[in-house]
Write a structure and sequence with these properties.
The chain has 334 residues and is of the alpha/beta class. It contains 15 helices and 14 strands. It has three domains: 5-115 and 290-304, Rossmann fold (3-Layer(aba) Sandwich); 119-200, NadA-like (Rossmann fold, 3-Layer(aba) Sandwich), CATH 3.40.50; 204-281, Rossmann fold, CATH 3.40.50.10800. A hairpin with a 2-residue loop joins β1 and β2 (9-10). It is globular.
């Protein structure tokens, strides 16, 4: 019989499994399904919402997340949610951002150790020092940063809107922190001078131009989509560069028969689940921080209301302002 029954329940015919059957084997689904059903039941009872980043594994992304997307999409939807409780299936800076936007709501992150190499590459004090070196220069800060850093910034950006944000300021020079590669890639697209910081994503900095050439050699006809946190040399080898949302949209709009997403490997699983007829070449550079989020700790977080995200009141308002400006448009400093 082509199905698995666990404790009398036919999980293989669960409608949720149809979303992921191309990337999750039946035997794994029999383990995931009871936890998924329980998570979905509890969140309904608690008026909770789960935000799932594109780098979550498919059972989280497709089966328990109410809102999915890149960091910009999650920030926008967090601002509009009617839920009482927000669970961030992502890393800590994302949970902080959700809390900044929703100060009255309870925001939970399933694992407090789900960090980010970019967020850890810079502190608020570092931003203060670079502002002293470049006075009167706006600080555009990647959303992949702590609230402490956001509080010292003028406006936030994501990889998807960085160029738009920078050019909206109407200035000749900006400080863009902390991702050096993203800043260099954006600088090539604009006439604005971009002052950079030496932060890097530990996933994307591993990709090399040789990797891209090998993809083409071993998979003739492959279309290469690369995240702008990769080095400029990698981006030069790619056919398209964009945020995770940008890459997903490219696939949906162009339907390349063979494609590689040069980014965290769960992204390919999630997009391929949506487009099973396409051939996805799957490089596997894992983000160890994203992979700390599991069905088990999401369930524990809901049951025990663990781990609540709080932000120091001394920086909260200033950090919120930089995010608000990203979402709602630049407002003069004075």
């Amino acid at each position: 019989m082509n199905r698995l029954a666990v404790q009398g329940k036919d999980y293989i015919h669960d409608p949720l499994y149809s979303r992921v059957k191309g990337v999750i084997p039946e035997i794994e689904w029999s383990v995931f399904a009871p936890k998924i059903n329980e998570i979905n039941r509890i969140k309904r009872d608690m008026n909770a919402v789960i935000l799932g980043h594109n780098y979550m594994t498919p059972e989280i992304y497709h089966c328990v997340s109410d809102i999915v997307g890149d960091s910009l999409a999650l920030a926008k939807h967090a601002a509009n949610t009617k839920a009482d409780i927000i669970v961030m299936a992502g890393v800590h800076f994302m949970a902080e951002t959700a809390k900044l936007i929703n100060p009255e709501k309870k925001v939970l992150i399933p694992d407090l150790k789900a960090g980010c190499s970019l967020a850890e590459s810079i502190t608020g004090k570092d931003v203060q020092l670079i502002k002293e070196k470049y006075p009167d220069t706006p600080v555009v800060t990647y959303v992949n940063t702590s609230a402490d850093v956001k509080a010292e910034s003028d406006i936030c950006c994501t990889s998807g809107n960085a160029k738009e944000i920078i050019e909206s300021l109407g200035v000749k020079r900006v400080i863009m922190l902390p991702d050096e590669y993203l800043a260099q890639n954006i600088a090539k697209e604009t006439d604005v001078e971009v002052v950079t910081w030496a932060g890097k994503c530990e996933v994307h900095e591993k990709f090399t131009p040789e990797d891209i050439r090998n993809f083409r050699l071993n998979h003739p006809g492959v279309v290469v989509l690369a995240h702008p946190e990769c080095s400029p040399e990698v981006i030069d080898e790619a056919d398209f560069s964009g945020s995770t949302a940008g890459m997903s949209n490219f696939v949906g709009e162009n339907m390349p028969q063979k494609v590689v997403l040069v980014t965290e490997c769960s992204m390919s699983d999630n997009v391929s689940a949506q487009y099973p007829s396409l051939d996805f070449v799957k490089p596997c550079n894992l983000c160890p921080h994203m992979k700390r989020i599991t069905l088990d700790n999401i369930l524990n977080s809901l049951i025990n209301l663990e781990h609540e995200v709080t932000i120091d009141s001394k920086i909260e308002a200033r950090a919120r302002l930089s995010v608000d400006r990203m979402l709602n448009g630049w407002k003069p400093l004075n």
